[in-house]
Amino acid sequence: MGMSWTRRPIYLDYRAPSVRGLLNCGLSCCINALLQSLSATTELLNLLNRWLPPDDFEDHHNVPLELKRVLHAMRDQLQPAPHRDFLDCLHHNYVHRFTQHDADEVFHSILNLIKQQMLDHELVAEIQNLFKIVMEGHIQCLECAYVHRVPTFSLNLPLHLCEEKNTLEDCIRSFFKIQVLEDSDKFCCDRCEEKQTVAQGFKIVSLPSILCIHLKRFRNDNGLIKKLYCQVTFPKSFSMTEILTEQYAPEQTLKDKYTLYAVIVHSGSPMFGHYTAYIFSTKDCTWYYTDDSHVHRASWTDVQQTYDGSFRTGSAYMLLYRRSSSEALQESSE
Ligand SMILES: [Zn+2]
Fold first, then answer.
1. Which residues contact 321 (CB under 8 A, 6 or more apart)?
2. Catalytic residue among 61, 138, 148, 274
3. In the predicted model, what is the mean pLDDT of residues 161-165?
4. Domain span at residue 65?
5. Residue 101 catalytic?
6. Alpha-carbon span 217 to 318, nearest angstrom
7. How far is the centre of ligand 1, averaged over its atoms, from the C-alpha of 192 (Å)?
8. Region label for 93, one of left (φ > 0), alpha (ψ between -120 and 50) or beta (otherwise)
9. Is residue 25 part of a domain?
10. Overall average pLDDT of the 224-252 stretch
11. pLDDT digits over 33-59, tens only?
């Protein structure tokens, strides 16, 4: 062909947004914000596209199939994307409509339902690996000093917040800090053969290409759910090298660079809340703010407004970072 369109369009502001809105159907803002984030996770649709169910496979209650359909519908269109089928499908799978959901819970439910309902086990493993943080728990008995090594994994990094000011870096550091488990949290030591007070810590074995971080703003306070509106600053990009030492992760893993591309925002109270999302579109390298069917361009400064929130303004609840390895970055800058 030989034609290249290198000139930028003149009517920049009249371009259609590259992110498509989603109508709020029956309190679906939580699922909408999550769908926007999953839509920006292009790696997920690429994997779902590789799934080829049999031609006569028409199960409207199958989450991976409906997710694949809705993620396709959300691409390259101007109007709010039709996603009622996906909401109906989730409803049938116990993620009910007309219910206030927690974005972190729905995130895990969707990945779990993909695991249960997709028959291609290799592909299921690849989808899990996209988000899988592999760790090794070190649990040392404080009585006999024996160290139990427990392999474990998580599909996101749940971070505890302190009630005043936080930085993402500090929250990650405290996640890996050694904790003493005593009283009702005692651990059964294999050597002592009884429950003992232990010191527990984690080491990273490997980090995924999509690092999903859950800022635990909801806290159970004597049976009452309380929301923490406190400040949590987070960087546009980072590597674990700036946060952890080699004691906590393999050298290469520490060097990998992660760049933010989606922020799920929660506003309001735990009982009457609303979810929205900031999405970075790689198509036009622009941040978008999505509030159900309303989509508009946004700036990094707008995203930073979600560091903290009041009852009325939203605060960041989930952060999605994408890995670009240090070598790839070097190559692209050369
Ligand atoms: Zn022991």
1. 210, 211, 212, 213, 237, 238, 258, 259, 260, 261
2. 274
3. 91
4. 19-131
5. no
6. 10
7. 4
8. alpha
9. yes
10. 94
11. 999 999 999 999 999 999 888 777 777
Position 111 confidence tier, pLDDT thresholds 50, 70, 90: very high
Report residue 57 as tokens. 């496979």
Q: Residues 97-118: what's their mean pLDDT?
A: 92
pLDDT in tens, 259-288: 999 999 999 988 888 999 999 998 889 999
Output the CA 177–ligand 1 centroid distance in Å: 21
Q: How close is the Cα of 183 to the center of ligand 1, in Å?
A: 15
Position 88 in a domain: yes
| 274 a catalytic residue | yes
Beta bridge partners of residue 133, listed in sequence order: 154
Classify residue 290: in a domain, yes or no.
no
How many angstroms is it from 276 CA to the middle of ligand 1?
Answer: 48
Residue 174 alpha carbon to ligand 1 centre in Å: 25
- Total domains in the chain come to 1
Give the C-alpha separation, 117 to 32, whole Å.
21
Domain CATH for 80: 3.90.70.10
Q: Which two tokens stand for residue 227?
A: 């929301």
CA 304 to CA 329: how far, in whole Å?
Answer: 24
* Residue type, position 172, single letter: I
In this prediction, residue 165 carries a pLDDT of 93
* Identified catalytic residue from 29, 30, 171, 212: 29
- Please name the amino acid found at residue 96: H
Residue 51 lies in a domain: yes
